[in-house]
Fold this protein.
Amino acid sequence: MPARDRSAGRCSLEVPVLAERGRLLLTVAAGLLAEEVRGTGRRNGPGLAEDGRRARQRAVRIRGALERLGPLYIKVGQILSTRQDMVPHALARELEHLHDRAEVCPFDRMAAVLEADLGRGWHGRFRDFDAARPLGCASLAQAYAATLADGRPVVVKVQRPGITTLMAADMRLLRGATRLLARRTPVLSETIGFDAMLGVIFDAMHDELDFTLEAANMDQARTAVAATPGIEVPAVVHATPRVLIQRRAPGTSIRQADPAAFKDEERERIGTDLLTVMYQGYFIDRRFHADPHPGNIFVCPGGPATLIDWGMVGRIDRHLSMTLMMTLLALANNDAHAVAHTWPEMGRPTAWADIGGFEQDMAAVVPKLASVPLERLEFGASLAALLRHSSRRGIQTNPMIGILGKSFANMEGAVRYLAPHLSVTDILVRQSRRVLAEYARQSLAEPQLAYTALQMLCGLETLLPQARAVGRGLAGGELTVQQAPVTRPFSLVDHRANARLRRTERHLLGAAALLWLLRRRRR
Protein backbone atom coordinates (compact mmCIF):
# COMPACT_ATOMS: atom_id res chain seq x y z
CA MET A 1 0.00 0.00 0.00
CA PRO A 2 1.39 3.48 -0.81
CA ALA A 3 2.53 5.56 2.15
CA ARG A 4 -0.38 7.98 1.74
CA ASP A 5 -2.91 5.13 1.74
CA ARG A 6 -1.31 3.53 4.82
CA SER A 7 -1.55 6.87 6.63
CA ALA A 8 -5.18 7.25 5.61
CA GLY A 9 -5.92 3.70 6.77
CA ARG A 10 -4.28 4.38 10.11
CA CYS A 11 -6.27 7.60 10.59
CA SER A 12 -9.54 5.85 9.65
CA LEU A 13 -8.71 3.17 12.24
CA GLU A 14 -7.92 5.73 14.96
CA VAL A 15 -11.22 7.63 14.55
CA PRO A 16 -13.49 4.76 15.67
CA VAL A 17 -11.03 3.83 18.43
CA LEU A 18 -11.04 7.45 19.64
CA ALA A 19 -14.86 7.47 19.60
CA GLU A 20 -14.98 4.14 21.44
CA ARG A 21 -12.53 5.28 24.12
CA GLY A 22 -14.42 8.56 24.45
CA ARG A 23 -17.69 6.66 25.03
CA LEU A 24 -15.99 4.45 27.63
CA LEU A 25 -14.60 7.49 29.41
CA LEU A 26 -18.03 9.15 29.49
CA THR A 27 -19.66 5.90 30.69
CA VAL A 28 -17.19 5.49 33.53
CA ALA A 29 -17.50 9.17 34.51
CA ALA A 30 -21.31 8.94 34.45
CA GLY A 31 -21.13 5.86 36.68
CA LEU A 32 -18.97 7.68 39.20
CA LEU A 33 -21.33 10.66 39.19
CA ALA A 34 -24.39 8.42 39.69
CA GLU A 35 -22.73 6.68 42.65
CA GLU A 36 -21.84 10.05 44.14
CA VAL A 37 -25.44 11.25 43.85
CA ARG A 38 -26.79 8.03 45.40
CA GLY A 39 -24.26 8.31 48.20
CA THR A 40 -25.36 11.88 48.93
CA GLY A 41 -28.93 10.72 49.45
CA ARG A 42 -28.17 7.94 51.92
CA ARG A 43 -26.07 9.39 54.69
CA ASN A 44 -25.83 7.02 57.66
CA GLY A 45 -25.12 9.71 60.17
CA PRO A 46 -23.62 13.14 60.77
CA GLY A 47 -20.12 14.07 61.62
CA LEU A 48 -16.54 13.51 60.55
CA ALA A 49 -16.76 9.71 60.75
CA GLU A 50 -19.46 9.61 58.06
CA ASP A 51 -17.51 12.05 55.87
CA GLY A 52 -14.41 9.89 56.21
CA ARG A 53 -16.34 6.73 55.29
CA ARG A 54 -17.77 8.37 52.18
CA ALA A 55 -14.33 9.71 51.19
CA ARG A 56 -12.88 6.19 51.39
CA GLN A 57 -15.76 4.73 49.35
CA ARG A 58 -15.32 7.46 46.74
CA ALA A 59 -11.60 6.72 46.55
CA VAL A 60 -12.24 2.99 46.00
CA ARG A 61 -14.68 3.78 43.18
CA ILE A 62 -12.20 6.10 41.48
CA ARG A 63 -9.44 3.49 41.71
CA GLY A 64 -11.74 0.91 40.14
CA ALA A 65 -12.65 3.35 37.36
CA LEU A 66 -9.00 4.03 36.52
CA GLU A 67 -8.21 0.30 36.43
CA ARG A 68 -11.16 -0.21 34.06
CA LEU A 69 -9.94 2.56 31.76
CA GLY A 70 -6.55 0.94 31.26
CA PRO A 71 -2.78 1.51 31.37
CA LEU A 72 -2.51 5.24 30.72
CA TYR A 73 -5.11 6.14 33.35
CA ILE A 74 -3.49 3.71 35.80
CA LYS A 75 -0.11 5.44 35.36
CA VAL A 76 -1.73 8.86 35.82
CA GLY A 77 -3.43 7.59 38.98
CA GLN A 78 -0.16 6.22 40.33
CA ILE A 79 1.48 9.61 39.81
CA LEU A 80 -1.48 11.34 41.48
CA SER A 81 -0.94 9.13 44.54
CA THR A 82 2.24 11.15 45.15
CA ARG A 83 0.51 14.51 44.53
CA GLN A 84 -1.48 15.26 47.65
CA ASP A 85 -1.39 18.87 46.54
CA MET A 86 -3.89 17.82 43.84
CA VAL A 87 -6.01 15.03 45.36
CA PRO A 88 -7.42 14.43 48.87
CA HIS A 89 -5.43 12.32 51.30
CA ALA A 90 -7.89 9.40 51.26
CA LEU A 91 -7.80 9.22 47.46
CA ALA A 92 -4.00 9.47 47.34
CA ARG A 93 -3.70 6.52 49.75
CA GLU A 94 -6.15 4.45 47.70
CA LEU A 95 -4.38 5.22 44.42
CA GLU A 96 -1.21 3.71 45.89
CA HIS A 97 -2.93 0.32 45.44
CA LEU A 98 -3.57 0.74 41.72
CA HIS A 99 -2.64 -2.39 39.79
CA ASP A 100 -2.38 -2.91 36.06
CA ARG A 101 -4.35 -6.14 35.66
CA ALA A 102 -6.16 -7.36 32.58
CA GLU A 103 -7.96 -10.45 31.38
CA VAL A 104 -5.87 -13.02 29.53
CA CYS A 105 -5.81 -12.32 25.80
CA PRO A 106 -6.35 -15.55 23.80
CA PHE A 107 -3.02 -16.91 22.62
CA ASP A 108 -4.08 -17.12 18.98
CA ARG A 109 -4.21 -13.32 18.93
CA MET A 110 -0.82 -13.04 20.65
CA ALA A 111 0.61 -15.67 18.28
CA ALA A 112 -0.28 -13.40 15.39
CA VAL A 113 1.98 -10.72 16.90
CA LEU A 114 4.80 -13.26 17.36
CA GLU A 115 4.49 -14.39 13.76
CA ALA A 116 4.41 -10.84 12.42
CA ASP A 117 7.50 -9.77 14.39
CA LEU A 118 9.57 -13.00 14.52
CA GLY A 119 8.45 -14.73 11.34
CA ARG A 120 6.39 -17.83 10.66
CA GLY A 121 9.06 -20.11 12.08
CA TRP A 122 9.12 -18.39 15.46
CA HIS A 123 8.45 -21.74 17.22
CA GLY A 124 11.89 -22.93 16.12
CA ARG A 125 13.58 -20.45 18.46
CA PHE A 126 12.23 -22.30 21.50
CA ARG A 127 12.56 -25.75 22.98
CA ASP A 128 9.30 -25.11 24.84
CA PHE A 129 6.86 -22.23 25.17
CA ASP A 130 4.18 -22.16 27.90
CA ALA A 131 1.31 -20.52 25.99
CA ALA A 132 -1.37 -21.84 28.36
CA ARG A 133 -0.22 -20.03 31.52
CA PRO A 134 1.07 -16.48 31.01
CA LEU A 135 3.45 -15.30 33.73
CA GLY A 136 1.72 -11.92 33.75
CA CYS A 137 -1.24 -10.23 32.08
CA ALA A 138 -1.14 -6.44 31.96
CA SER A 139 -3.11 -4.10 29.73
CA LEU A 140 -0.06 -3.38 27.56
CA ALA A 141 1.44 -6.85 27.19
CA GLN A 142 1.49 -10.46 28.32
CA ALA A 143 4.59 -12.38 29.42
CA TYR A 144 5.27 -16.08 28.84
CA ALA A 145 7.84 -18.51 30.22
CA ALA A 146 9.88 -20.26 27.54
CA THR A 147 13.16 -22.10 27.00
CA LEU A 148 15.38 -21.30 24.05
CA ALA A 149 16.63 -24.02 21.72
CA ASP A 150 20.03 -23.83 23.47
CA GLY A 151 18.43 -24.42 26.88
CA ARG A 152 18.46 -20.88 28.29
CA PRO A 153 15.32 -19.99 30.32
CA VAL A 154 13.71 -16.79 29.04
CA VAL A 155 10.65 -14.60 29.36
CA VAL A 156 8.85 -13.58 26.17
CA LYS A 157 6.97 -10.31 26.46
CA VAL A 158 4.35 -9.80 23.74
CA GLN A 159 2.48 -6.56 23.17
CA ARG A 160 -1.31 -6.77 22.99
CA PRO A 161 -2.68 -6.25 19.47
CA GLY A 162 -3.88 -2.70 18.80
CA ILE A 163 -2.60 -1.27 22.10
CA THR A 164 -0.58 1.53 20.46
CA THR A 165 -3.68 2.86 18.67
CA LEU A 166 -5.66 2.65 21.91
CA MET A 167 -2.94 4.49 23.84
CA ALA A 168 -2.73 7.22 21.19
CA ALA A 169 -6.50 7.74 21.50
CA ASP A 170 -6.30 7.91 25.31
CA MET A 171 -3.43 10.40 25.16
CA ARG A 172 -5.42 12.59 22.80
CA LEU A 173 -8.48 12.48 25.06
CA LEU A 174 -6.43 13.26 28.17
CA ARG A 175 -4.70 16.16 26.41
CA GLY A 176 -8.08 17.61 25.50
CA ALA A 177 -9.47 17.16 29.02
CA THR A 178 -6.36 18.74 30.54
CA ARG A 179 -6.53 21.79 28.29
CA LEU A 180 -10.22 22.23 29.12
CA LEU A 181 -9.41 22.04 32.83
CA ALA A 182 -6.58 24.55 32.38
CA ARG A 183 -8.94 27.07 30.70
CA ARG A 184 -11.54 26.67 33.45
CA THR A 185 -9.05 26.88 36.34
CA PRO A 186 -6.20 29.18 35.20
CA VAL A 187 -4.80 29.85 38.67
CA LEU A 188 -4.71 26.15 39.60
CA SER A 189 -3.26 25.28 36.19
CA GLU A 190 -0.50 27.86 36.55
CA THR A 191 0.44 26.40 39.93
CA ILE A 192 0.20 22.70 39.04
CA GLY A 193 1.21 22.80 35.36
CA PHE A 194 -1.24 20.12 34.19
CA ASP A 195 -0.08 20.04 30.58
CA ALA A 196 3.61 19.78 31.51
CA MET A 197 2.87 17.04 34.06
CA LEU A 198 0.94 15.05 31.47
CA GLY A 199 3.79 15.51 28.98
CA VAL A 200 6.27 14.06 31.46
CA ILE A 201 4.04 11.00 32.00
CA PHE A 202 3.64 10.49 28.25
CA ASP A 203 7.40 10.78 27.71
CA ALA A 204 8.15 8.31 30.50
CA MET A 205 5.67 5.80 29.02
CA HIS A 206 6.90 6.23 25.44
CA ASP A 207 9.47 3.43 25.71
CA GLU A 208 6.79 1.00 26.92
CA LEU A 209 5.16 1.09 23.49
CA ASP A 210 8.31 0.04 21.61
CA PHE A 211 10.22 -2.90 23.05
CA THR A 212 13.39 -2.01 21.13
CA LEU A 213 13.55 1.16 23.24
CA GLU A 214 12.97 -0.86 26.41
CA ALA A 215 15.78 -3.21 25.35
CA ALA A 216 18.10 -0.21 24.90
CA ASN A 217 17.12 0.99 28.39
CA MET A 218 18.02 -2.44 29.78
CA ASP A 219 21.42 -2.42 28.09
CA GLN A 220 22.21 1.03 29.53
CA ALA A 221 20.94 0.03 32.98
CA ARG A 222 23.05 -3.14 32.94
CA THR A 223 26.15 -1.03 32.39
CA ALA A 224 25.13 1.38 35.14
CA VAL A 225 24.55 -1.31 37.81
CA ALA A 226 27.84 -3.08 37.08
CA ALA A 227 29.42 -1.16 39.97
CA THR A 228 27.00 -2.90 42.37
CA PRO A 229 27.66 -6.66 42.08
CA GLY A 230 24.51 -7.68 43.94
CA ILE A 231 22.16 -6.09 41.38
CA GLU A 232 21.44 -7.42 37.90
CA VAL A 233 19.39 -6.44 34.86
CA PRO A 234 18.28 -9.33 32.58
CA ALA A 235 20.19 -9.78 29.34
CA VAL A 236 18.22 -9.05 26.18
CA VAL A 237 18.16 -11.99 23.77
CA HIS A 238 16.10 -10.38 21.01
CA ALA A 239 13.82 -7.37 20.63
CA THR A 240 11.35 -6.07 18.05
CA PRO A 241 8.88 -3.21 18.55
CA ARG A 242 6.26 -5.67 19.87
CA VAL A 243 8.21 -8.69 21.16
CA LEU A 244 10.95 -8.75 23.81
CA ILE A 245 12.87 -11.93 24.69
CA GLN A 246 15.00 -11.63 27.84
CA ARG A 247 16.76 -13.93 30.29
CA ARG A 248 14.46 -15.11 33.06
CA ALA A 249 15.21 -13.58 36.46
CA PRO A 250 15.97 -16.12 39.23
CA GLY A 251 13.84 -16.30 42.37
CA THR A 252 10.52 -14.61 43.08
CA SER A 253 9.28 -11.05 43.38
CA ILE A 254 10.39 -9.32 46.55
CA ARG A 255 6.73 -9.11 47.58
CA GLN A 256 6.41 -12.91 47.53
CA ALA A 257 9.83 -13.66 49.02
CA ASP A 258 10.03 -15.17 52.51
CA PRO A 259 12.32 -12.96 54.63
CA ALA A 260 13.11 -15.96 56.85
CA ALA A 261 14.80 -17.67 53.89
CA PHE A 262 17.47 -14.95 53.85
CA LYS A 263 20.21 -14.30 56.39
CA ASP A 264 20.00 -10.98 58.21
CA GLU A 265 23.12 -9.61 56.56
CA GLU A 266 21.85 -10.74 53.14
CA ARG A 267 18.54 -8.91 53.56
CA GLU A 268 20.38 -5.75 54.60
CA ARG A 269 22.80 -6.11 51.67
CA ILE A 270 19.97 -6.51 49.14
CA GLY A 271 18.08 -3.50 50.50
CA THR A 272 21.23 -1.38 50.59
CA ASP A 273 22.21 -2.38 47.05
CA LEU A 274 18.75 -1.59 45.67
CA LEU A 275 18.69 1.88 47.24
CA THR A 276 22.29 2.51 46.18
CA VAL A 277 21.45 1.75 42.54
CA MET A 278 18.39 3.99 42.66
CA TYR A 279 20.35 6.89 44.21
CA GLN A 280 22.97 6.42 41.51
CA GLY A 281 20.21 6.75 38.93
CA TYR A 282 18.76 9.90 40.51
CA PHE A 283 21.99 11.75 41.27
CA ILE A 284 24.79 10.43 39.04
CA ASP A 285 23.40 8.83 35.87
CA ARG A 286 20.24 11.00 35.91
CA ARG A 287 18.39 8.06 34.33
CA PHE A 288 16.33 5.93 36.69
CA HIS A 289 13.78 3.13 36.84
CA ALA A 290 10.49 5.02 37.12
CA ASP A 291 8.38 2.03 38.20
CA PRO A 292 10.39 -0.13 40.66
CA HIS A 293 7.33 -1.57 42.42
CA PRO A 294 7.73 -4.87 44.31
CA GLY A 295 6.59 -6.94 41.31
CA ASN A 296 9.51 -5.59 39.27
CA ILE A 297 12.20 -6.72 41.73
CA PHE A 298 13.17 -10.41 41.93
CA VAL A 299 15.29 -11.87 44.72
CA CYS A 300 16.53 -15.34 45.71
CA PRO A 301 18.57 -16.52 48.72
CA GLY A 302 22.26 -16.57 47.85
CA GLY A 303 21.63 -14.87 44.49
CA PRO A 304 21.38 -11.36 43.07
CA ALA A 305 18.46 -8.95 43.12
CA THR A 306 17.15 -8.42 39.59
CA LEU A 307 15.40 -5.28 38.32
CA ILE A 308 12.99 -6.02 35.48
CA ASP A 309 10.53 -4.06 33.31
CA TRP A 310 12.54 -1.09 32.04
CA GLY A 311 9.82 0.34 29.83
CA MET A 312 9.17 3.36 32.06
CA VAL A 313 12.42 5.27 32.61
CA GLY A 314 12.78 8.77 34.02
CA ARG A 315 15.38 11.28 32.82
CA ILE A 316 16.30 14.47 34.67
CA ASP A 317 18.78 17.25 34.07
CA ARG A 318 21.83 18.14 36.12
CA HIS A 319 20.24 21.11 37.89
CA LEU A 320 17.18 19.17 39.09
CA SER A 321 19.35 16.27 40.23
CA MET A 322 21.67 18.49 42.27
CA THR A 323 18.84 20.52 43.78
CA LEU A 324 16.93 17.39 44.76
CA MET A 325 20.05 16.01 46.46
CA MET A 326 20.47 19.25 48.43
CA THR A 327 16.79 19.19 49.43
CA LEU A 328 16.90 15.61 50.71
CA LEU A 329 20.14 16.16 52.63
CA ALA A 330 18.68 19.33 54.16
CA LEU A 331 15.59 17.35 55.15
CA ALA A 332 17.72 14.63 56.72
CA ASN A 333 19.66 17.31 58.65
CA ASN A 334 16.51 19.09 59.87
CA ASP A 335 17.49 22.27 58.00
CA ALA A 336 14.14 23.93 57.25
CA HIS A 337 15.80 27.10 55.94
CA ALA A 338 17.74 25.14 53.32
CA VAL A 339 14.65 23.15 52.27
CA ALA A 340 12.64 26.35 51.87
CA HIS A 341 15.32 27.83 49.58
CA THR A 342 16.23 24.78 47.49
CA TRP A 343 12.69 23.53 46.81
CA PRO A 344 11.57 26.55 44.71
CA GLU A 345 14.74 26.06 42.63
CA MET A 346 13.14 22.83 41.33
CA GLY A 347 10.29 24.77 39.80
CA ARG A 348 9.03 28.28 39.26
CA PRO A 349 7.29 30.59 41.71
CA THR A 350 4.13 32.03 40.19
CA ALA A 351 3.43 35.77 40.23
CA TRP A 352 1.34 35.31 43.39
CA ALA A 353 3.74 32.94 45.15
CA ASP A 354 3.99 33.42 48.91
CA ILE A 355 7.64 32.54 49.52
CA GLY A 356 7.54 33.85 53.08
CA GLY A 357 4.54 31.64 53.84
CA PHE A 358 6.35 28.62 52.37
CA GLU A 359 9.36 29.32 54.60
CA GLN A 360 7.04 29.38 57.61
CA ASP A 361 5.47 26.10 56.48
CA MET A 362 8.88 24.48 56.22
CA ALA A 363 9.85 25.74 59.66
CA ALA A 364 6.90 23.74 61.01
CA VAL A 365 6.96 20.73 58.67
CA VAL A 366 10.65 19.85 58.36
CA PRO A 367 11.26 19.26 62.09
CA LYS A 368 8.28 16.88 62.12
CA LEU A 369 9.61 14.93 59.15
CA ALA A 370 13.14 14.93 60.56
CA SER A 371 11.88 13.62 63.93
CA VAL A 372 10.54 10.44 62.31
CA PRO A 373 12.83 7.51 63.26
CA LEU A 374 15.39 6.96 60.51
CA GLU A 375 14.13 3.46 59.74
CA ARG A 376 10.62 4.86 59.14
CA LEU A 377 11.49 8.02 57.22
CA GLU A 378 10.50 7.71 53.56
CA PHE A 379 11.65 10.25 51.00
CA GLY A 380 8.70 9.46 48.71
CA ALA A 381 6.19 10.48 51.39
CA SER A 382 8.33 13.50 52.33
CA LEU A 383 8.35 14.76 48.73
CA ALA A 384 4.55 14.43 48.66
CA ALA A 385 4.28 16.54 51.83
CA LEU A 386 6.56 19.25 50.42
CA LEU A 387 4.59 19.27 47.17
CA ARG A 388 1.35 19.87 49.05
CA HIS A 389 2.72 22.93 50.83
CA SER A 390 4.53 24.41 47.83
CA SER A 391 1.44 24.21 45.60
CA ARG A 392 -0.68 25.82 48.30
CA ARG A 393 1.81 28.71 48.37
CA GLY A 394 1.78 29.20 44.59
CA ILE A 395 5.09 27.52 43.73
CA GLN A 396 4.92 25.46 40.53
CA THR A 397 7.16 22.43 40.97
CA ASN A 398 8.97 20.64 38.16
CA PRO A 399 6.55 17.94 36.89
CA MET A 400 9.35 15.36 37.08
CA ILE A 401 8.99 15.52 40.88
CA GLY A 402 5.82 13.44 40.53
CA ILE A 403 7.70 10.72 38.63
CA LEU A 404 10.58 10.89 41.13
CA GLY A 405 8.19 10.69 44.08
CA LYS A 406 6.52 7.61 42.61
CA SER A 407 9.91 5.98 41.99
CA PHE A 408 11.12 6.79 45.52
CA ALA A 409 7.91 5.50 47.11
CA ASN A 410 7.88 2.29 45.06
CA MET A 411 11.49 1.38 45.82
CA GLU A 412 11.22 2.27 49.50
CA GLY A 413 8.04 0.17 49.74
CA ALA A 414 9.74 -2.76 47.97
CA VAL A 415 12.77 -2.66 50.30
CA ARG A 416 10.46 -2.72 53.33
CA TYR A 417 9.29 -6.24 52.38
CA LEU A 418 12.76 -7.65 52.98
CA ALA A 419 14.55 -5.12 55.19
CA PRO A 420 11.98 -3.02 57.09
CA HIS A 421 14.62 -1.81 59.56
CA LEU A 422 16.80 -0.22 56.87
CA SER A 423 17.27 3.57 57.04
CA VAL A 424 16.98 5.27 53.66
CA THR A 425 18.53 8.38 55.20
CA ASP A 426 21.66 6.56 56.38
CA ILE A 427 22.19 5.09 52.92
CA LEU A 428 21.71 8.48 51.24
CA VAL A 429 24.23 10.10 53.58
CA ARG A 430 26.67 7.24 52.91
CA GLN A 431 26.22 7.70 49.15
CA SER A 432 26.51 11.50 49.34
CA ARG A 433 30.32 11.39 49.31
CA ARG A 434 30.28 9.41 46.06
CA VAL A 435 27.63 11.73 44.57
CA LEU A 436 29.48 14.90 45.56
CA ALA A 437 32.73 13.55 44.17
CA GLU A 438 30.96 12.91 40.86
CA TYR A 439 29.45 16.40 40.88
CA ALA A 440 32.91 17.88 41.49
CA ARG A 441 34.43 15.78 38.70
CA GLN A 442 31.73 16.90 36.27
CA SER A 443 32.04 20.56 37.33
CA LEU A 444 35.82 20.55 36.83
CA ALA A 445 35.64 18.79 33.47
CA GLU A 446 36.83 21.02 30.64
CA PRO A 447 33.48 21.15 28.77
CA GLN A 448 31.65 22.26 31.93
CA LEU A 449 34.32 24.84 32.81
CA ALA A 450 34.18 26.23 29.28
CA TYR A 451 30.38 26.39 29.48
CA THR A 452 30.51 28.22 32.83
CA ALA A 453 33.10 30.68 31.50
CA LEU A 454 30.93 31.35 28.45
CA GLN A 455 27.92 32.02 30.68
CA MET A 456 29.98 34.53 32.67
CA LEU A 457 31.21 36.29 29.55
CA CYS A 458 27.67 36.55 28.20
CA GLY A 459 26.55 37.96 31.54
CA LEU A 460 29.33 40.53 31.50
CA GLU A 461 28.45 41.52 27.93
CA THR A 462 24.94 42.34 29.17
CA LEU A 463 25.94 43.86 32.52
CA LEU A 464 28.66 46.30 31.39
CA PRO A 465 26.50 48.42 29.03
CA GLN A 466 23.80 48.59 31.71
CA ALA A 467 26.36 49.65 34.32
CA ARG A 468 27.72 52.36 31.98
CA ALA A 469 24.18 53.64 31.38
CA VAL A 470 23.53 53.85 35.13
CA GLY A 471 26.86 55.63 35.61
CA ARG A 472 26.06 58.21 32.94
CA GLY A 473 22.64 58.76 34.52
CA LEU A 474 24.19 59.35 37.93
CA ALA A 475 26.84 61.70 36.53
CA GLY A 476 24.31 63.78 34.63
CA GLY A 477 21.75 63.79 37.39
CA GLU A 478 19.26 62.13 35.08
CA LEU A 479 18.68 58.86 36.95
CA THR A 480 14.97 58.32 37.70
CA VAL A 481 13.17 55.74 39.82
CA GLN A 482 9.76 54.50 38.65
CA GLN A 483 7.14 53.37 41.16
CA ALA A 484 4.65 50.63 40.29
CA PRO A 485 1.84 49.08 42.36
CA VAL A 486 2.56 45.71 43.98
CA THR A 487 0.50 43.03 42.23
CA ARG A 488 1.53 40.07 44.38
CA PRO A 489 2.14 39.47 48.10
CA PHE A 490 4.95 41.70 49.31
CA SER A 491 8.14 40.03 50.41
CA LEU A 492 11.37 41.57 51.62
CA VAL A 493 13.15 38.85 49.63
CA ASP A 494 12.62 38.79 45.88
CA HIS A 495 12.73 35.11 44.89
CA ARG A 496 13.63 35.97 41.28
CA ALA A 497 16.53 38.11 42.45
CA ASN A 498 17.59 35.30 44.77
CA ALA A 499 17.59 32.85 41.87
CA ARG A 500 19.76 35.22 39.82
CA LEU A 501 22.10 35.65 42.79
CA ARG A 502 22.46 31.88 43.22
CA ARG A 503 23.20 31.48 39.52
CA THR A 504 25.84 34.22 39.78
CA GLU A 505 27.42 32.42 42.75
CA ARG A 506 27.64 29.22 40.74
CA HIS A 507 29.22 31.11 37.84
CA LEU A 508 31.81 32.68 40.15
CA LEU A 509 32.64 29.29 41.64
CA GLY A 510 33.02 27.88 38.14
CA ALA A 511 35.29 30.75 37.15
CA ALA A 512 37.42 30.22 40.24
CA ALA A 513 37.72 26.54 39.39
CA LEU A 514 38.69 27.42 35.82
CA LEU A 515 41.40 29.83 37.01
CA TRP A 516 42.70 27.24 39.46
CA LEU A 517 42.90 24.61 36.73
CA LEU A 518 44.67 26.92 34.30
CA ARG A 519 47.18 28.01 36.97
CA ARG A 520 47.81 24.39 37.90
CA ARG A 521 48.53 23.47 34.28
CA ARG A 522 50.99 26.36 33.88
CA ARG A 523 52.97 24.91 36.75
In short: Residues 3-40 form the longest helix (38 residues). Residues 1-13, 486-497 have pLDDT under 50 and may be disordered. The first strand starts at residue 126 and ends at 129.
